[in-house]
């Protein structure tokens, strides 16, 4: 593919690209084609003058712009045809009745020139393979022999005018090389407009990304990410507050235990109701468990699950001497709470 000469589109110079791609070299320039166009205009002017330079048709012809070229770089089929005559080449309309009567298979030709809406491009055989050398493509497009006829028919349906190039084309390196080898094309070329649009879109996306990064001081953090961070910080503060509350509770319990120890050392009596000292509670629990163990030892060995045969008076006496586990727990909690309140008051006064 690298050996194939392929001019890409510049401005509206598609006629120049078409001729150079056909001849496989830089054979024509805009200046040379303009010279041919001016020569054709002068020949047309001379023919119009034969009817009289004072005639209305002649004056109208002089006021009209050239039909062979314009300022954009467009050149007519007459300019292209005259340029090819220099190389002994001739153009024949592909769908003309004269050519259709010849019944020539397109693959037996050497090249075609196609035109639609002032755009010209070449389809040429190089070696043993056909190539679409349209200057609007990013590179030559390989066309198989079986697809060539369908390709030309599709162009005709789209409104293209197709011309068969008759005559011997000048030798070129690509034709000689492709006579010996065949090429394969893995990816078809794109239109230049599509490639430029894709590159432009990539540049726009890159610019937008850089603008976002710059707006966020390079951190790339969007508003949603900032909201998520704020929520995470709020949850973290709540967890810290809960940990502080638990720490305060542990300190309060520790103070309660210290207060209980001080009350025990001072031997302050608290016998009214359930307000007992820890020492009294401990003694009553020991007495209760000792009696329970004595009763279990007196039980017959064959009846371990039977309850001791005690009278209601003895049971009431036991309950009077020792409080139940629930009463003792309640008494301990009450004592702890009172000690905490006393300690908080003392610390407040300090």
UniProtKB/TrEMBL annotation:
PROSITE patterns: JOSEPHIN, UIM
Record domain Josephin: where: 1-180
UniProt keyword Oxidoreductase present: no
Cellular localization per UniProt: Nucleus
Main location: nucleus
Organism encoding this protein: Tursiops truncatus
InterPro entries listed in its UniProt record: Ataxin-3 (IPR033865), Josephin (IPR006155), UIM_dom (IPR003903)
Protein name, as recorded: ubiquitinyl hydrolase 1
Residue ranges with Polar residues bias: 259-276
UniProt xrefs under PANTHER family: ATAXIN-3-RELATED
UniProt lineage: Eukaryota, Metazoa, Chordata, Craniata, Vertebrata
Record keywords, A-Z: Hydrolase, Nucleus, Protease, Repeat, Thiol protease, Transcription, Transcription regulation, Ubl conjugation pathway
EC number assigned by the record: 3.4.19.12
Transmembrane segments: none
């Amino acid at each position: 593919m690298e050996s194939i000469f392929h001019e890409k589109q510049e401005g509206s110079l598609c006629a120049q690209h078409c001729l150079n791609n056909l001849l496989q070299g830089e054979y024509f320039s805009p200046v040379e084609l303009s010279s041919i166009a001016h020569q054709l205009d002068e020949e047309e002017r001379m023919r119009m003058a034969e009817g009289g330079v004072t005639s209305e048709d002649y004056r109208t012809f002089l006021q009209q712009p050239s039909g062979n070229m314009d300022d954009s770089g467009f050149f007519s089929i007459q300019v292209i045809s005259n340029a090819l005559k220099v190389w002994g080449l001739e153009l024949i309309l592909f769908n003309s009745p004269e050519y259709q009567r010849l019944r020539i298979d397109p693959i037996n030709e050497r090249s075609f020139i196609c035109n639609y809406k002032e755009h010209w491009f070449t389809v040429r055989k190089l070696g043993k393979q056909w190539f679409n050398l349209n200057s609007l493509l990013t590179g030559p497009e390989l066309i198989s022999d079986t697809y060539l006829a369908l390709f030309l028919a599709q162009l005709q349906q789209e409104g293209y005018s197709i011309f068969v190039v008759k005559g011997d084309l000048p030798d070129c390196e690509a034709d000689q090389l492709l006579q010996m080898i065949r090429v394969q094309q893995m990816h078809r070329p794109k239109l230049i407009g599509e490639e430029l649009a894709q590159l432009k879109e990539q540049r726009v996306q890159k610019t937008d990304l850089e603008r976002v990064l710059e707006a966020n001081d390079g951190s790339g953090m969007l508003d949603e990410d900032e909201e998520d961070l704020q929520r995470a910080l709020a949850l973290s503060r709540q967890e810290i507050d809960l940990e502080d509350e638990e720490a305060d509770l542990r300190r309060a319990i520790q103070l309660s235990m210290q207060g209980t120890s001080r009350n025990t050392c001072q031997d302050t009596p608290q016998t009214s109701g359930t307000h007992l000292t820890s020492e009294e509670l401990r003694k009553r629990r020991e007495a209760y468990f000792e009696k329970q163990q004595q009763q279990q030892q007196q039980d017959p060995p064959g009846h371990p699950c039977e309850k001791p045969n005690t009278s209601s008076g003895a049971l009431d006496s036991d309950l009077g001497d020792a409080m139940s586990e629930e009463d003792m727990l309640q008494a301990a909690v009450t004592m702890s709470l009172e000690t905490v309140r006393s300690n908080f008051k003392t610390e407040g006064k300090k």
